[in-house]
TrEMBL record:
Residues 1-134 form the DAGKc domain. One of its GO terms (molecular function) is kinase activity. Its cofactor is Mg(2+). Pfam families: DAGK_cat. Belongs to the diacylglycerol/lipid kinase family. SUPFAM superfamilies: NAD kinase/diacylglycerol kinase-like. This is DeoR faimly transcriptional regulator. InterPro entries: ATP-NAD_kinase_N (IPR017438), Diacylglycerol_kinase_cat_dom (IPR001206), Lipid_Phosphate_FormReg (IPR050187), NAD/diacylglycerol_kinase_sf (IPR016064).
Amino acid sequence: MRALFISNPHATTMTPRSREVIVRALASDIKLDTALTEYRGHAVDLARQAAEDGYELVISFGGDGTVNEVANGLMAVPEEQRPVYAALPGGSANVFVRALGLPVDPVEATGAVLEALHTGSRRTVNLGRIDGPDGGRYFTFCAGFGWDADVVHEVERQRKQGRRATPALYTAIALNLFFRGGMGGDPSLSVHMPERHPVRGLYFALVTNTTPWTYAGPSPVQPTPRSRFELGLDVFALTRVDTMTTANVLRMMFSAKGLPPRGRGYLTWHDREEFTIRSRWPRAFQIDGEYLGHRQQVNFRSVPKALRIVA
């Protein structure tokens, strides 16, 4: 099997030594070429070129941003030309990899991928897609309008100043924005489902392609626990942001069962093929932990059986 190994040298937990160990382990079993990303969006180009060059497998070593880029690169080619994909964790959260059930340690995850290659274990996952001025983008696990996108935006700003994107940094910024009122006071969002009346007056909206939405350290955060890679998209939206309601919603998100489908202060939609989220004015927007600017409208749809994954 001919494979391309794409790694992000700036990923939070990736080191030259760990990369060397993983490359040696993979190269002992498969014919492996390697590439380092050099700029934002480079993994998109590398993955697309790998598909066009006839590689059978693409492996990434990086965070969720690298996973998102590789997925978008692979989706740029016809399905029959698309290589199988394996993702190894090198970031701070690694939501996609952990949602697949792979170990969070990159060396252990490499062992699991090699075992899956030996046994022929594969799974097919759906992706989410958004329409936008840049022609649209795919996302692997989540998209967010409002508070979480504000958090991502601030983390990216601090990373440019030299901070590491650790779980502690995300948590500190999220709490700071919350206590400053960043989660409330702006019910400008609305969800528009086909053949249904719009639901307005929403403070924060989240779209998921799987569960969990994210991790707070080792703890999964589950606003849409029924969401699955094999189903359509789920949506969570806050309708109230008083302290007691928000605290109760967060408590349930952290529970083993996650947030129930119905409850006070929020709404959920399950297994949806397409819909639109709008804002009365531009709000921060993110996909897979990447800030995409402020937007007033995003159209979403589920893309079935998009990628074949080694897992």
